[in-house]
Amino acid sequence: MEVEKISACRACKSLSIKPFFDLGAQPLANSLLKSPDDPEKFYPLSLSFCENCSLVQLNQTVDPKVLFSNYLWVTGTSKTANVFATQFYKELVARRGGTKAGYVLELASNDGTFLLPFIRDGYKVLGVDPAQNVVDIAIKNGVPTKCVFFGEKAAKKILREHGPASMIFARNVLAHVANMHDFLEGTRMALADDGVAAIEPHYAKVILEGLQYDSIYHEHLCYFSLKSLEKLFNDHGLFVFDAIESPISGGAIIVYAKKEKTDPSKNLLEFRKRENENKTNEFASWQDFAKRAFAHKQKFFGMMSNVRNKLSDILKDDGAKKPLVIGWGASARSSTLLNFCGLGSDIIPAIIDLNSLKQGLWTAGTRIPVVKPETALALKPDYILILAWNFSNEIIEMLKTKYDFRGSFIVPLPEFKIIK
């Protein structure tokens, strides 16, 4: 089936899952259209909370082959990701220590950006990704990569051909996996007995605190806290010993695990403490999250729907010229935000994106053209709505220095603000 509703927790199989947030029927976030007249499908998008293991999760699963066989996000287009790749490499190597024997395995490796620092330092590497288009890019970049959905079956084949990996990492992928048990069991199998695995999902605590409802879309099946991650890992013979924060995705957590239990680091103990203080793993917190999201939607829609004739007054600008707002970032985040808030091309006539794979297409559901920066900036917009707000500093700096943009910026989340 193309979409299937869950009846039990994806992680612990408990039947005690409680729904709390319904974002309505939405298109697949990365299913950009070739024409604004193309037909498209909409799927239910709603969340539940597991009372047993505290996992926040989608109530529906869309067929992974529909979601991931052709992927439009290319890691290398982000300056932030390129810079962080080197730091990520240093952090993982420091926790593994020792020799360069064996090899480094990345799961869902995309274009290979995060494997390049390992290659430059003399490590053998292997990438695995299910999207042939980005696998082709990775291979062109000099990163050995296999096109396959990772799990136990793929792990067995990798073991036969390459042996166990001394380091395995998976960034922004665990939350995407419909069968996370197969994925983690494959990870444990492929990892050397003395190896280290690093998993980086978007962090539920950050989503909760920052009202990041735009991170909710069909590709992200789960929203992990440290508590829910540790429970899941332990069930598969992997034991978390350390954790750090990541700047990616608007705020992520990187957990480091081994096959044997070791004493938790000070970092890990601090993460546990903060989750308790913030009540990250309490159902009432997520009920409040849903209420705040609907309140934000109302405020944001009210402001943006009047942009053509009232924004000047709202911003206390002089002059009768109706301001023009152009979006930046045709990301999956932007799809949820625009569809949930009901904003289309009548309010935002174009969205800039640096990814050439997206340029010339139209956004899912809202049908806004995706264009090059030069095309949109030639319209002389007064405001740039930064839909990819998790890269807002990078985007603002680029617009000022490279494109000499002298207008203002609208940042919708995590706190709505206008930067003159």
What does this protein structure show overall?
The chain has a domain at 309-419: NAD(P)-binding Rossmann-like Domain (Rossmann fold, 3-Layer(aba) Sandwich), CATH 3.40.50. The chain contains 14 helices and 19 strands. The protein has helices spanning 64-68, 79-96, 116-120, 132-140, 152-162, 180-190, 204-210, 226-234, 266-278, 283-304, 307-314, 332-341, 373-377, 392-401; strands at residues 3-5, 17-26, 43-50, 56-58, 60-62, 104-107, 125-129, 145-147, 165-171, 191-200, 222-223, 239-246, 252-258, 325-328, 351-352, 370-371, 383-386, 408-411, 417-419. It has a seven-stranded mixed sheet, with helices on both faces. A six-stranded mixed sheet has the order 16-15-14-17-18-19. Strands 2-3-4-11 form a four-stranded antiparallel sheet, covered by helices on one side. Strand 18 (408-411) and strand 19 (417-419) form a beta hairpin. Helix 5 (152-162) runs parallel beside helix 6 (180-190). The termini are far apart.
Helix amount:
25-40%
Radius of gyration: 22 Å
CATH-level-2 architecture of the domain at 309-419: 3-Layer(aba) Sandwich
Strand content: 15-25%
Given helix and strand content, the structural type is alpha/beta
- Please name the CATH topology of the domain at 309-419: Rossmann fold
CATH superfamily of the domain at 309-419: NAD(P)-binding Rossmann-like Domain
* Largest sheet features: 7 strands, mixed
| End-to-end C-alpha gap | 49 Å
Task: Average the pLDDT over all residues and give the rounded result.
Answer: 91
Number of helices: 14
Which consecutive residue ranges, at least 5 long each, have pLDDT under 50?
none
From the spread of the alpha carbons, the general shape counts as globular
CATH class of the domain at 309-419: Alpha Beta
How many DSSP E strands? 19
User: Within the largest sheet, what's the order of strands?
Assistant: 8-7-6-9-10-13-12
